[in-house]
Design brief:
It is found in: Cell membrane; Endomembrane system; Membrane. This protein is an all-alpha fold. Helices cover about 75% and strands about 0% of the residues.
């Protein structure tokens, strides 16, 4: 099968969904089920059929390694989960999109169910991109689609404000990124990451221009992943965007940003690179600052979406620290593979939390932590799943989140990065406080309060909840299930000719 077959097929699926929405009166939820079906089929083909081999002429700019396939799988799962959440959130979208919601109960839903498919296509291309042009084009496909989705609820002031902020700051970050890529091309004369790595290895002049280019690229990508100090958009955009879109930003967009950052960083840190040491220090400092700010700011939050926004920032810090570690660590995984493992554990627990918010909002509750008070008592199964997800986000042992944090901390120990080890441990300890504050609220009920609402979940949401809850336990107890999917060290760095030898 051609490496681009799935991406092209999903692009066609997205166009078909939009055409059906425009020229037929098919119930809009049917479009959502069609999107879920098509994405699920693509996921099954990816898992069981693979995408081995290379199309002629694509070897230089499109990777089909274990890491790329793994991230494509994450993109598909995240998109399916987003559309499932969108089904639950549909009444809220209709309320803020339709002129007369009572008369037009499906107004605006077709595009809301279709656009995530195009985001998925962009993320899958980003997973394999290994030249500067492909990286930029795929990144913009994702970003432009998110511009629309964030501001989708046009009658909501919060959604419009989030969209404007995301657009302005996104355009700024895009400018930094394209300027950095252009500067990098001008200095090395190469477009592919492999050729850039070779140029860095044999560089003989001043490294200042290279460091300037690398700084611009890291700044542009830092915005996409919500790293400090490029995080200022995250809290407001996460809070104002439709909840399923916030979940997609938190997981899908972050994963797409980190696969590109992983490949770029591996190029900068390849053996013999003239800029390896300073770039490693920059990543470590950014990671440490991101962990501290994200966790400390989350303590004071009373809005659950805003708390998850700062939590997302903190998790990005752990990923930055591991990318700054030595490529030849003793964990059995490369830094890029550890980051992929971390994101795989982050996906189910984050979507479970946003599923609760989507269902609660659609059924008349707010997004404040106080408004969720006692929900676990009236919804014990959902409450148990959310409790497990929050415990996993905190890093409780025998959960998926614990294994992700453990690998990051172990990598810092092996590299002797004890200051960053301390920051990671302190951040995890602070996380326990604010995550368990939410759990306490879910199980609390004050005398005299009205009985907590009994939430109703659709069948797709129930299936998603069961699968994601099980995955949190499985990845925590049996992490090798994910490690095997990531392949070996060499596979993850096949695109860099000067890869570090394995220990």
């Amino acid at each position: 099968m051609s490496p681009l077959s799935l991406e092209l097929a999903l692009g066609v699926l997205g166009l078909v969904l939009l055409l059906v929405e425009s020229f037929t009166r098919v119930p809009r939820k049917t479009l959502a089920y069609g999107a879920i079906g098509g994405l699920t089929l693509a996921l099954l083909i990816l898992v069981f059929g693979g995408a081995s081999g290379q199309a002629p002429g694509m070897e230089e700019f499109y990777a089909v390694d274990a890491l790329a396939l793994f991230y494509k799988g994450l993109a598909l799962v995240a998109t399916i989960a987003t559309i499932v959440l969108s089904l639950e959130y549909a009444p809220v979208v209709n309320q803020y999109v339709a002129t007369y919601p009572e008369k037009h109960k499906e107004a605006g839903l077709g595009e809301f169910f279709s656009l995530p498919v195009f985001v998925c296509v962009g993320m899958m291309v980003m997973a394999s991109a290994k030249d500067l042009i492909t990286i930029f084009v795929a990144l913009e496909l994702v970003t432009v689609s998110f511009y629309v989705l964030v501001a989708y609820m046009r009658r909501s002031a919060a959604s419009l404000e989030a969209g404007v902020k995301y657009l302005i700051l996104g355009a700024l970050s895009t400018g930094l990124l394209i300027y950095g890529l252009a500067w990098l091309y001008g200095m090395t004369g190469a477009l592919t990451l492999e050729d850039i790595a070779k140029s860095l290895k044999h560089w003989e002049g001043s490294t200042a221009p290279l460091l300037f280019a690398a700084a611009l690229v890291i700044a542009g990508l830092g915005f996409k992943v919500g790293a400090v100090p490029f995080h200022i958009w995250v809290p407001d955009v996460y809070q104002g965007a439709p909840t399923p879109v916030t979940a997609f930003l938190s997981v899908g967009s972050k994963a797409a940003g980190f696969i590109v950052l992983t490949r770029v960083v591996e190029t900068f840190l390849a053996e013999g690179s003239a800029i390896a040491q300073p770039i490693s220090h920059v990543l470590l400092v950014l990671g440490g600052a991101t962990i501290l700010l994200g966790n400390l700011a989350a303590i004071a939050q009373t809005n659950f979406k805003r708390l998850l926004a700062y939590s997302s920032i903190a998790h990005a810090g752990y990923l930055l620290i591991v990318l700054g570690c030595s490529p030849a660590g003793g964990t059995g995984l490369t830094p890029g593979q550890i980051a992929a493992f971390y994101l795989a554990t982050y996906l189910p627990m984050t979507f479970i939390c946003f599923l609760l918010l989507s269902v609660a909002r659609a059924q008349g509750l707010g997004e404040e932590i106080a408004s969720l008070r006692g929900l676990a008592l009236s919804n014990p199964k959902l409450g148990m799943a959310v409790t497990l997800a929050l415990a996993s986000l905190a890093g409780l042992p025998l959960t998926a989140g614990f294994m992700g944090k453990f690998l990051v901390i172990f990598a810092t120990v092996l590299d002797g990065l004890y200051p960053y080890l301390a920051i990671a441990v302190i951040g995890a300890a602070v996380g326990f406080y604010y995550y368990f504050r939410v759990i306490l609220s879910l199980y609390s009920k004050t005398e005299g309060e009205a009985a907590p609402v009994k939430l109703k979940l659709g069948l797709p949401s129930v299936v998603l909840l069961v699968l994601f809850t099980a995955s949190i336990v499985v990845m925590g107890v049996y992490p090798d299930s994910v490690r095997k999917a990531l392949g070996d060290k060499g596979a993850a760095k096949a695109h860099v000719a000067t890869a570090v030898e394995k220990h």
